[in-house]
User: Fold these one by one.
Assistant:
Number 1:
Amino acid sequence: MWLMTLRIALRALKRNKLRSFLTMLGIIIGVGAVIAMVAIGEGAKALVRAQIATLGTNVLVILPGTATQGGVRTGSGGVRTLVDSDARAIMDEVPSVALASPTIRRTEQVVAGNLNWATVIQGVAPEIQQIRDWQVGEEGRFINQADVDNAGKVALIGQTVANNIFGNEDPIDGVIRIRKIPFRVIGVLGAKGQTGHGTDQDDVVMIPYTTMQKRIMGITHVQGIVVSAVSAEKTQEAQVQITALLRQRHRIPPDQDDDFFVRNLSDIAEAASNSARVMAILLGSIASVSLFVGGIGIMNIMLVSVTERTREIGIRMAVGARKKDIMLQFIVEAVVMAAIGGALGILLGISSSSVINRMMQWPVLIRADIIGVALLVSGGVGVFFGFYPAQKAANLDPIDALRYE
Amino acid sequence: MVQVNELIRVRDLHKIYRMGDVEVPALCGINLDIQRGEFVAIMGASGSGKSTFMNILGCLDRPTTGAYYLDGQEVGSLSQDAWANIRNRKIGFVFQGFNLLPRTSALENVELPMMYNGLHSGGRHQRALEALSSVGLGERVHHTPNQLSGGQQQRVAIARALVNHPALVLADEPTGNLDTKTSAEIMELFQDLNLKEGLTIVLVTHEADVAAYAQRQIHFRDGLVISDQAVRPRVQRLQG
């Protein structure tokens, strides 16, 4: 019975190939748009999420504040009051803080053999590995406390640096020179890719911050302290506690501004992921509207079809079709049209998202569950928009239907 | 419970149509019995009520009052679905305009009634072929209606009416769209089916020539039966 109804439906659709196709086109475009838009939205969300993960959602950055001298304000980092013992104190005394590491950065020319490369040299403490979730290649190790204590001339290099100055050679135990000082390479950092701003996080060399202070920069302060809170929820609390601690340590009277900033990365991350989510919802709902419009197209054509086939309905009723047989026939026809449209729409959605991915370099993520939902929804659209025309057909009076010209 | 032996028994059948506020009587008390194996012609001018009566006999329309027994069962008050079932199993329709599905082969047209009684497709096929050959159309089963002549189309329609082995065939002006020669062929086919298969046929026509093939002629006027008489049917040319 079902098989036959399906065959009747297919034959009816085949009879008006162009019309059936144009009707399906609404669903094809609707489903295709939903899939492509959701893929783009999900791709953006996944990208943001991945970027946030590389930054760490529970990370706070403390930067030196500004100083005013004779009416001239220096930019951020103009004061030299932030020191490495602040980092130690934050780690030891603030309960909501897990780890802290001083950082000092400067761009320098790195030389290995006859190759050289300008990159960011970062002076860090061992804690930075956990804070920023840095991986180290199998054969290497990270900077340890001993390296920091005796300002060891050891360095970890990022993937980009390794590729540029070592090429295919194994960098471990190789020698790089920074300002003519030789450093032994103790490890290669795992790749992290770019940040949301396009900064290559792998274009970096890490050395102990003490080495940076004493051997390269000749300073005693630090340029920043990177802190990880015990959890993402505790970052607000940590921010308040760090501020209080540093004001006390720097002996800032209550009426004066802080001589440091505490930056919260999770704010940025949250804003970014929120905007990505809003975009995904927006794209998805615009696409859903087109699916709805496609459904209306099906209803329209089904109504035309019922009118055109009034006599056929009358004949079927005369030879024994019950109301529900007629109803089923037209609903199945609408559902078949919607389902075929949905299947073609899925193909269109997948192919257009991969085209978008390739041509515009946008990340896309096609989710299997979205495809399933799209197929179900298009079937549902068929039932929903096919119901009224089918009911109209089933409620025809056989006598009138047989006489219909 | 009345024991009813007639195939059709109609008692005091009234049908009144409402046109807005006006009530238009179409049937004004019909009493009629039709036995199994009869070939009856119902005649009358248009507006005499014969079409309304046919619709009621065919379980397409409901009498306003009165009783209609078909094959021993009171059917005038059954549900729509029960009617569909009766139309499917007990009644075969033949119409003036053939009423075949367009762009559908003769074979599939004949299979149509069996689609609604759950017969499997192999059996449908076989029975449809048998029905087509019984009306002399064994050859052209894969032609669509527009590839067939009027007479051939009406033969397909007759095969469709017969395919579920109905108790009753209702033919509404079956020769109305046919020329004289083809009309005669179709009427001979009906007569043949009636004589050889014992098929009960109720034929509506306003042509005396066509009605002459039946054994009994009933005349309608203004919603009433005005005459009901047995006649000597016209003899077939081919019958020796």
Number 2:
Amino acid sequence: MTDPVDIFREEALEHLSNLEAALLELEQAPTSAEEIDAAFRSMHTIKGAAGMVGFDHLSQFTHHLETLFDRVREGQVELTAPLINQILEARDHIERLLDDPSPSVELQAVSAAQIIQFTEVTGEEHAGPERQETGHASQTAAGEARLYRIDICPAADAFRDGFDTLPLLKELSGLGEIHVTTRLGSSFDPRHFEPETCVLALSVALTTHASRESIEDVFIFVGDEWQIDITAITADEDCRLGDLLVDQKVVAPDALEQVLEQQPRAGELITAAGLAAPETVQSTLDEQRFIREQQKKQRKATPEQSIKVPQHKLDQLMDQVGELVILQARLEQLALESDDERASSLAEELSRLSTGLRETTFDIRMLPIGSTFGRFRRLVRDLANDLGKEVVLETEGAETELDKVVIDRLSDPLVHLLRNSLDHGIETPEVRREKGKPARGHLWLSASQHQGQIQILIRDDGAGLDTERILSKAIERGVVQPGADLDPQEIYQLIFEAGFSTAQTVSDVSGRGVGMDVVKRSIESLQGRVQLDSTLGKGTEVCITLPMTLAIIDGLMTGVSRERYVLPLSTVEECVEAVPETEDENSGVRLIRHRDALIPCLRLRDFFRVGGQPPEIEQTVVVRVGEALMGITVDEVVGHFQTVIKSLGRLYQGAGGVMGATIMGDGQIAMILDVGELVEQARK
Amino acid sequence: MSKKTASAPEKWSIENGLSIFDVAALEAQCPWLQSLPRDKQLRLRLVGIEEVDSAGVQWLLALKHRLKLHGNELVLDAEASPELSEALLLMGLTESLGIAVAAEEDA
Amino acid sequence: MDDQTELAPMDAIQSLQILSFVLDEEWFGVEISGIQEVLEYRNVTQVPRTPDFMLGVINLRGRVIPVVDLRRQFEMHLSAPTVDTCIVIIHVEVDGENTPLGILADRVHEVVEIDTADIKPPPRIGNRIKTAFISGIVRHDEHFIILLRLSKVFAPEELDLVREQVSQEEPAEWDDV
């Protein structure tokens, strides 16, 4: 379940039962600070979460309860039995409000009545229904599409000055759904028509989520002489044909009234009376129809429609797209070999199509990582309570999008890391105070995207890792030989070693312990990488780097002898031919000159022990991982391909330098290089 | 711009362009504007229109309007031109100026 | 992960169907229920920097399937592929995950029906291969067929052992220009 609204509902229900439990306790002991806190927190959390998922009315409602508990906490309000009953009623009301982000008028009336009761108790400035309503209305205005009418009357010289209305209309249609009425304006004189003078008048009905400012921005470059009128039309405003005609200055108001008094069909009458040309009436009727339709939509207040699809169908789609991409590669190759014009144009067409399909499919699978953050907040809160610690979790980058499969499989390792931070990282309030730190610990969880990769940071301001103790522990457990000379980074890496942590909990080592090897393995199975940094006494930071997707990448195909290797294109800086090379005096590492710097260079033929003889001129692909640059020397660079990543399976887990395989057009298999791993190797 | 004869024909064609660069010439050459016919169905063929702008569309609207004043009905016969279709669609004129315009209005 | 994947409980089932194949002139058998198909030998793409025992991967109708050479694991004589060489695709639990993999065989014989009563425990000594890999031995015609316990062959401990060997024999041989 990853729909944020579903998660919100589930969590809200949990909070409601917390509230209920607290209230029942409070009935017995009305001053229990602990229970009052619990009640306050549950309301506070629902309020915040409701606001985030668009349950604005609910958020407003719970705000009053939050205030109430705040006053109770401060001793300003006494929790009497009748008040507790009222709150219990409010609790049931909240449960009903969870059904629909825009509750019915009846439910809103119930809210208003209850709010009045609570504000009487709290003495909070009377947030009566009126303020409530306006607050609500402005909230919905931001979320729902609005209908605007835009009247455009270009300057007479517009055409001669090089303006055209079509680009403007195109831009408006980019903002939302548009319906345009174009007619000859009042300045049109059939007897003296100058074709280069603009006499057009346009009316646009635009349904959009965009702000008025962004509509105004469309007209930013037109001349001052243009008349642009932007009017917001509300759903309640009754828009009759007559009004529109008058609004559009097609018919004078009083003339219209006369006609309307004679009733039957306004359209016919206005035409018959010669007030407006039939076309004008027709187009206005069209516009009216459009506005009606839009208003109907607006009334339904469905901000965005979405469909729930079972995961396996998405997986199936992805698999099929993958197969299609492979097939397309084969067709491309066939077309190339057969040198058939028609075949290559077909292959090209298919390639375009499958690229689009691939992107759409990916997009469907991308979800904001924030959908899991909510759960973490809960976990941290609960766990901190259990451990008697005060911890705040701050999250950032909830909107960062990741493949759903990655998000799902990331959840456990993240829970593990957060748990570790809470358990071993952040100290108890007493200890923290002794150390001169704020009693309340901080946990940061942030997600961001750069260079086609997702970076997730988990940082705490806890005790940090004690390298000496880790080292001695590692020696004790036989993970490291005694006397090994390791730098802090290498020591931190030790806690990811299987032998280090699985044996038993090492909570006596200040820092992490349980199953960090499992975390590392899970991240690596997602083609990701974990790094850890720590300052003793200050805190620890774990950095996870992940690819955005696990299914298809853009790859650069290279060859060594008969073997083919694919490098993720996102890591490739450039390809160079026959570069001068030297050797590092100490390590013997091969170095090449790249833009005035010497960078390490690895010859794939040697590193992978590929048989055969290298060609006279080798190619070197310069790759970048983070800040590190490295050369990878191959026999030849074949070209750019969309590469469907196939897992090598359990047997090959941990195969160094390879992150998967792909099937090429001819049915042969090419290895996909784990460039990050290769760079890592190069550092050693 | 072809098929120009002395007595106003009931068919006339525009080729290639329908933009600010063409409208002055179209206005000058259109046979129906000189020898105004009456109560005729006039068919305007639009061939290979690649360039359209709102000046061109305005000219079509103005032509239709002026012919109508003399009881003529202007029918557009257009070869498929994505540019023209898009322009008419954007300006909301697909029905009133579109190909095979309905003879009678709804209202 | 237990013996049931290769051998059904003996008291319940009287006979077993096994596929018999030859590795370095020795006969082996695997219960057929885990076997997906037998392929002719085809080019195996090497996965770099992995133990020799893991030959590489093949493309089986769009899936990438690992292929192993048990002869290396059993320290047997290696001969070049011949027309008789086959790849037996079989499902094995590796690290708790049902994994299809290919086993290289010098020759594949036939599906043999054997009586469970005829299965003898592996002799404790005198084997070329680890006793743990063998679930039993059965005589069929003039041959002894060694019934393999594949879950043990691909047990994590064994795989770790093999992987360790590779990391030892390859001391970060970082370029030798």
